[in-house]
Amino acid sequence: MAPAATSSSKAKAVCMACRARKKRCSGERPSCSNCVARQELCSYPPVRHSAIGALGRNSNGTPRSSDHFQFQPYTIPSAPPFYADLPSSTLPPDFDFAQDFCWSTATSGSKQAPFHTPPSTEDPSPPTAQDSTPELFSIPNQITSYPTSQAPLPSEAPGESTELCFVDSPSIDSFSNIESEPARDAPVNVPSQPQLDEICSIYFHRYYPILPIFSEERLAEALRKATTTQTTSDSPLLYAFAALVAGNHPSTDVKSQQQAWFKKAKHLYEQTSHIPYDPLHTLQAAACIVLHALVVGDFSAAWLVMGKAWRQTVALGLNQMDSLSTNQNGPTAGWRELEERRRTIWSLFILDRGICFPMGLAHTIDERQLRVNLPMDENTAQSTDPPPKDVASVLFTPNLRKLLSLVGGASQQSSPNVYHYLIISYLLLGRIVEHMYRPEADGDDEDDAEQDRSMLESLQQDVSHMRLMMPRAATEIASAAHPNCIYVVWMNAVMNVNTIFLFHRTPRRLERPQGCNDDTESSGCSAASNWQLCVAVAKKTAQLIREASLVSTDLLVNPNVSAPVYTCARILAIEHLLCSSPLESQGRASHPTGLLADLQAFLLLFDRLSEAFTGVGSKFRYRVLDLLEQGPEHAREMKAAGSKTLRDNCLQWQAAVLASAPD
Asked: Polar residues compositional bias: what residue ranges (predicted)?
């Protein structure tokens, strides 16, 4: 008997609702007659492996020439939708099947799922009516794209048919800016060797303190190898590094290729596996992509790339690279490569905390899973000779007091490593943000409130203890070595944000006394109860900016300090609007001394940032100007709400950005 006749003997497909009720099902698509009568959503079970074999054959029963991963769109005969017979009162007034069920109207009269199937030359004959509806199959090594990046599809006459296309199951990492992905055949110019030499020089002059993950010799060798081998198009490091630094290159030709290099780097990094061929260079490329995405405001790509980089780190075991078991059983590597691994992991940690704290995002890197030594000092790391054996590395521990003691002990033996204190400041920032954004449940009781107060007191003590533990060479520009000055500014800005987040916070429901409301600025009732302490910290940040500008503005041109500085500027903007200092005898409010000068210092810093890093500086500058144009009522609401209002959607800033943009 022919295979086609065999398939006709199969029982009709039964929907899940009829199967549960043990009723006879008509098997009609998209909704059987019973489900239409009951006004229920009709769904069919997923296809089984036997159905895959049937779909892999031609209409005459012979196997298809292509493998079973080549599927054709399943054409649904035109039929009224399952909700056509429902009373209008049962549906929302704005109900739309195409929108609510993730369909997109590609052309007039045709609704198509927002994905494309792989190209095929087979006859697009639909499966037999007896077969089950195929599920979403996974197509290996196939990245789909949305119809917005494709040519328009041929239009169909209304009412003819709707086409449901199968799609592969890409991971979440492949959804980072799919629309901005470069075309597969679009040429992307590879930087020439002279351009790479200039880019390397600019990196070590301007970017190395911000992202200290490369050594000069190994970086030059890696880039030279990437441009001379056949695997140039597969190396994300080359394009990620070039895109990061191209904005500060004097050549307009290099600047014009920055966006193309960035898209190419993201595309190549998305293709890397969880255990990449070149682990270190892959993670370094991820760090460059995340930093550049932070600069240009592509926070979605930064967050997704960060997540994949951390998963790769764990899969490679690099998060435990300095634990005892890893040292005994792990592969050996040169001391310089080990140091680059440590610096890359800690740079990713800093970027993760810096991206998440303004928006309250969940952190990607779990500090409790890290057993990685803190980085060496710069002179040792960039030296051509191996480090002396008597130089002991500082092993990271989540115990903050113990970690401060270890770092302090190492500082007494030599000059303090301010980068170590910077890492600890971000460690504190992450814990404070987790405490501040922790959700509050209705079922919380007094024990939860007591635990919350205990955690808050512990964090306050940790901030105070760290400030007292740090030597003046790590906190004062006048006492610090010149290479450490940028870290002094950076670390102080983060520590000031830690203080603001601890004291400008909205008390939880169980922390407030009875009869207390948000408008009451008494102790324990509002985020404004410690307001003057927050104002003092913000003014200290403005003073730090002026002190650093006496040395060089290069100490301030750091995209990582933009969000902390904006947090402080926001405090002074609210203070300026409310005039919250004590009233003078004449009955009018007076501004704190130098308040306008402090705000001017913040705005000038954002101007310098916008010159070096287009996007991040202008964004925060326009937001500060927008805050200053608000009325006292809006400022009073932000003052009482606490630092959680930093989570405001950046789309709300669009009006201020457009109004301040030059014509």
From this structure: 129-152
Average pLDDT over residues 591-615: 88
Residue 361 counted as domain residue: no
As to burial, measured by CB atoms within 10 angstroms (0-12 exposed, 13-18 middle, 19+ buried), residue 453 is middle
Helix 193-202 to helix 216-228 angle, to the nearest 10 degrees? Answer: 150
> Residues 655, 660, 663, CA angle at the centre, nearest 5°?
110
Range of the domain at 648: 550-660
pLDDT at 647 (0 to 100):
63
User: Looking at 85-89, 368-372, 504-508, which range is the least confident one?
Assistant: 85-89
Give the integer Cα–Cα distance in Å for 562 and 541: 12
- Give the sign of the dihedral formed by CA 528, CA 533, CA 537, CA 538: positive
Number of structural domains the chain divides into: 2
Nearest to 114 by CA among 160, 164, 152: 164
| Position 367 in a domain | no
How many angstroms separate the CA atoms of 365 and 356, rounded? 11
What is the separation of C-alpha 608 from the centre of its chain, rounded to a whole number of angstroms?
Answer: 25
Residue 112, classed as helix, strand or coil, is strand
230 alpha carbon, distance to own chain's centre:
32
Count Cβ atoms below 10 Å from residue 188 Cβ, excluding itself. Answer: 15
- Name which of 613, 615, 485, 599 is nearest 542 in CA terms: 599
| Model pLDDT, residue 512 | 55
Q: Which among 170, 191, 222 is the end of a domain?
A: 170
Last residue of a domain, one of 145, 170, 195: 170
How are beta strands 161-164 and 74-77 bridged, if at all? antiparallel
User: Which residues partner with 57 through β-bridges?
Assistant: 63
Cα separation of the two ends of the chain: 76
Taking each helix axis from N to C terminus, what angle separates 335-356 and 299-316, rounded to the nearest 10 degrees? 140
Cα distances (Å, whole numbers) of residue 263 to 176, 258, 286, 501:
10, 9, 13, 35
CA 117 to chain centre: 29
Residue at 223 is within a domain: no
Residue 430 lies in a domain: no
